[in-house]
Amino acid sequence: MEMKKDRVKSEKDSKLLENKLKMLQTEELKALKKFQKEMKNKEEWEAARQKTVEFKNELNHNKFQKKQETHQNSIKIKEMKEKIQKSLNDKKMMKFQENRLNNLQLKQKKIENEEFRNLLVEEDTKKNKEVADSIKSKNKEASDKRKQADVIF
After folding, report:
1. Which residues of 116-144 are buried (b: 16+ CB within 10 A; e: fewer)?
2. What is the model's pTM?
């Protein structure tokens, strides 16, 4: 009987241990699943964080590139403005020199024309004086001839 009791007790203990083992296995399985879920969540979170970091890096890189492009464009625009200003100044200077040369040429032409006009006036005056002298001498000759003709008659 005692053996029977021992056997029953052993069976109970065995069942109890078996139940405890099943419980521990269930808890271990739960803990493993919880651990796997946490690891999966950590991996997902790390992947999301990595994507965010990559996105921020790409965004910063794009901002930097845009800033560089803007800077390069502003330098190009500044250079173009300087070239345009230089070109305009050169054209103004060329026009000024051209106008100055034209002005000098006009003054020279005016002097030449004035000299030519004075020469023509002088020649006309000389001609008119010669014609007047010629007329005076002809008038005097005619007057002298009339006087001689009057004396003769």
Report:
1. eeeeeeeeeeeeeeeeeeeeeeeeeeeee
2. 0.46
